[in-house]
Write a structure and sequence with these properties.
By secondary structure, the protein is α/β, with parallel strands linked by helices. The chain is globular, with a radius of gyration of 19 Å. The protein contains 16 helices and 13 strands. Helix 2 runs parallel beside helix 15, helix 4 runs parallel beside helix 5 and helix 5 crosses helix 16. 43% of the residues lie in helices and 15% in strands. The protein folds into three domains: 113 residues, NadA-like (Rossmann fold, 3-Layer(aba) Sandwich); 83 residues, Rossmann fold (3-Layer(aba) Sandwich), CATH 3.40.50; 74 residues, 3-Layer(aba) Sandwich (Rossmann fold). The strands form three sheets. It has a five-stranded mixed beta sheet, sandwiched between helices. Strands 2-1-3-4 form a four-stranded parallel beta sheet, with helices on both faces. 48% of the residues are buried. The C terminus is likely disordered. The structure holds iron/sulfur cluster. Iron/sulfur cluster binds next to loops.
């Protein structure tokens, strides 16, 4: 059945078909924290990008449907080459990951031939394959600290995360000039408004936010860090994509959560809809295919990061 027919099905019908397909095809749904609420509801596991990739390793299934953006599905494939990894929409790409191409990285490496290249997980498989180390927002400072002092470090592609890591570690980083528009466009005016409206709430922000906004935060942390912090706070202003609020409300129904910016919506994350999830499951679409050499090289950069595991960034409070 073509995708257009699925748009006519009710939510209840879609959910019933999704649950049936999951069992019949031995497939699990992994969804990122920024996914639509109805997609989060049918997921077997919710998390950040590395969580999703490592969770795929632990699941006893033939396939996973990754509800997120393309680099996340690629990362799951890199860590699980034997697993069939599907993504419901190939147009769901990450604007931040798209700020650096493999050609641009090669050029930067020529300009800094001695630099250790640290790439944020929000990069293509090709960029990871040409990097020395990978990092996430949860462990970037520790990854940088694992590099011997005195080594030049090229950090790609998020300039805001890179600046924050440089501040946390005291290391000089050569920063790529990329940013995530969802976080970049949160402003100090948003902070002022949110704090006035919710004076008791603590402000937590993602390190992809600008330093001007992050400066006002009680805590700068990854999305998983925000979920953990919600355990000890009664009311939070959440400075990241608004999809995380759905997860927080579900996990802490008695607590209050407010978006720092209600228009902080990642358009490509929201391309994944319930009808596409159902269609993808029933039609085995779209398989993520990567060159085995790229998988091996990218995997090396990710595994070096995982070998540093058990570590996450120290809490970054004002
Ligand atoms: S929120 Fe930003 S970093 Fe995350 S997937 Fe969307 S564009 Fe990429």
């Amino acid at each position: 059945m073509e995708l257009r027919h699925y748009t006519k099905l009710s939510k209840a019908d879609l959910i019933q078909r999704i649950e049936k397909a999951k069992i019949e095809k031995n497939i699990r749904i992994l969804a990122h924290n920024y996914q639509r609420p109805e997609v989060q509801e049918v997921a077997d596991y919710l998390g950040d990008s590395l969580d999703l990739a490592t969770k795929a390793q632990a699941l006893n299934c033939q396939s996973v449907l990754l509800c997120g953006v393309l680099f996340m599905a690629e990362t799951a494939k890199i860590l699980n080459p034997e697993l069939r990894v599907l993504i419901p929409d190939l147009n769901a790409t990450c604007q931040l990951a798209d700020t650096i191409s493999i050609e641009e990285l090669h050029q930067a490496k020529e300009e800094h031939p001695d630099a250790v290249v640290v790439s944020y997980v929000n990069t293509s498989a090709l960029v990871k394959a040409a990097s020395d180390l990978c990092c996430t927002s949860a462990n970037a400072a520790h990854v940088v600290n694992s590099i011997p002092p005195g080594r030049e470090i090229l950090f790609v592609p998020d300039r805001n995360l890179g600046k924050w890591v440089a501040d946390c570690t005291g290391r000089h980083l050569i920063l790529w000039n990329g940013f995530c528009y969802v976080h970049e466009y949160m402003t100090e005016a948003d902070v002022e408004t949110a704090k006035t409206e919710h004076p008791q709430a603590k402000l937590v922000v993602h390190p992809e936010c600008t330093p001007r906004v992050a400066h006002h935060a009680h805590l700068i942390t990854s999305t998983n860090g925000m979920v953990h912090f919600a355990n000890e706070a009664e009311e939070l202003i959440v400075g990241t994509e608004i999809g995380l609020i759905e997860r927080l409300k579900r996990e802490y129904p008695l607590k209050k959560f407010h978006p720092l910016c209600a228009s902080a919506i990642c358009a490509t994350m929201k391309l994944i809809t319930l009808d596409k999830v159902c269609w993808a499951l029933e039609n085995d679409q779209y398989p993520v295919e990567l060159n085995p050499e790229v998988i091996a090289m990218a995997r090396s950069a990710i595994e070096k990061m995982i070998a540093l595991r058990g570590i996450t960034n120290p809490p970054s409070k004002r």
